[in-house]
Amino acid sequence: MSSGIPSSWYNVVPDLPAPPPPPLHPGTRQPVGPDDLAPLFPMELIGQEVSTERYIAIPQEVLDVYRLWRPTPLIRARRLEKALGTPARIYYKYEGVSLAGSHKPNTAVPQAYYNAREGVRLLTTETGAGQWGSALAFACAQFDLECRIWMVRASYDQKPYRRSLMQVYGATVCPSPSTMTGAGSKVLADDPGSPGSLGIAISEAVEVAGANPDARYALGSVLNHVLMHQTVIGEEALAQLEEMPDLIIGCTGGGSNFAGLTFPFLREKLAGNLDVTLRAVEPEACPSFTRGVYAYDFGDAAGLTPLLKMHTLGHGFVPDPIHAGGLRYHGMSPLLSHMYELGLFEAVTRSQTECFEAGVRFARTEGIVPAPEPTHALAETIAEALRCRESGEEKVILTALCGHGHFDLAAYDRYLSGRMEDYPLPQERIDEALHSLPG
Ligand SMILES: *Cc1c(COP(=O)(O)O)cnc(C)c1O
Q1: Ligand 1 atom nearest residue 252's Cα
Q2: 254 close to ligand 1 (CB < 6 Angstrom)
Q3: Is the minimum distance from the CB of 371 to ligand 1 under 6 angstroms?
Q4: Residue whose CB lies within 8 A of the most ligand 1 atoms, among 373, 380, 408, for a mutation test
Q5: What CA–CA distances, in Å, run from 221 to 157, 289, 379, 427?
Q6: pLDDT grade, residue 1 (50/70/90)?
Q7: Residue 141 has pLDDT above 80, yes or no
Q8: CA neighbor of 232 nearest in space, from 102, 103, 42, 376
Q9: What angle do helix axes 409-416 and 352-366 make, rounded to 10 degrees?
Q10: Is the CB of 329 under 6 A from ligand 1?
């Protein structure tokens, strides 16, 4: 640590009782090697993806950019505690102070840095709610890279200002599905009004990067190196907290903010230094941990990526258009999926309206308007604090407030005017989407 910023990222893999199953080549069903991944990622990140080192030093150039907003604040939510009348003590680690307003720049910056260092000229990516896109657009501007982003149609229409932010940072943004790629054209042919999904947008970005030798692809979540970059969150929190948490709660889309906050605490738990429960919260409309299956599936809708062993609803699953666009992903990080199978954390779901209710409550007490994604963590945190009010337990709860909702005020409008819907997910839709699993 120097000036409160960690000097290394923490890799949880060597501390696990068993390593996660490897990604497989869809043709040969053999583990993918560096050569298979080289068209998509720079060598340094491929190395980090399979690393068994516990710590990887953060390059000085990356630390220089991190310093623009890190360390991020760790705050005790005394006003929320008081409003709830709970004996629980609630802390939140706030990533909304970053330049893009979420935790995403923690990985966007090193990804852009390593690509630029290896001579890449163009990065392609997908974005759901726009947080990842704006983080990568910012990071590409730092290292003189061109940036092209496929934005999920539902968010493109709901969040025009996120798109403007990406454009201000210099990126090109297209709605997904688009007619610019084979994958997008195919979806549009079947369903011209498709709201899109992260899985479809990934197919488009991967297709374009794979066809251009000067281009690579960047992913904002799911992969091991992304989760590792996010551990700066948990390392800082460990150093900042005055008392150790009994429970840590975070929302999970692909799993990176949850992993980033929890992995350093899990390291201490596995070493016998700490007794802490970890709980992931996912949307009712896209419940990959709690209602998906643990199986090899594609990371994208068109089936262009390697096969990943993960909790999945099927790569053909298109989640309903909830406002938490960052949680609309059919799969889950393979590393977290493996750890869930090992029983290292719990998972629960929350509905959209109870999440916005929690978000408004948080805004009116603590003053921060949360992004729709972390309102899932807040809804669970508030429910737990109210359970403590009943039991009298003085539980210490740490929650991941991974972004602000300043670009999500249209969604808050819908909630406040009583026009927000819930999307309970019938079992038939899951069963149907699971038919798309590769045999
Ligand atoms: C992207 C995003 C998420 C979901 O991604 P994870 O990898 O699960 O963290 C959640 N919250 C915010 C604010 C995001 O930008």
Answers
A1: 8
A2: yes
A3: yes
A4: 373
A5: 23, 16, 22, 27
A6: low
A7: yes
A8: 103
A9: 100
A10: no
Say if residue 325's pLDDT is above 90. Answer: no
End-to-end alpha-carbon separation of the chain, Å?
A: 47
The whole-model pTM stands at 0.96
Decide: 333 in ligand 1 pocket, CB within 6 A: no
Please state, in angstroms and rounded to a whole number, the distance separating the CA atoms of residues 315 and 177.
15
**9-46, pLDDT tens digit by residue?**
999 999 999 999 999 998 899 999 889 899 999 999 99
**Confidence at residue 304, expressed as pLDDT on a 0 to 100 scale:** 83
As assigned by CATH, the class of the 63-101+225-425 domain is alpha beta
What pLDDT is recorded for position 381?
A: 98
Closest ligand 1 atom to residue 327 Cα is 4
What distance in angstroms lies between residue 27's CA and the mean position of ligand 1's atoms? 31
The predicted pLDDT at position 169 comes to 98
> Residue with structure tokens 């692809």?
217
As a whole number of Å, the CA-based R_g of the chain is 20
Q: How remote is the C-alpha of 216 from its chain's centroid?
A: 20
Give the nearest ligand 1 atom to 128 CA.
1
* 190 CB neighbour count, 10 Å cutoff: 8
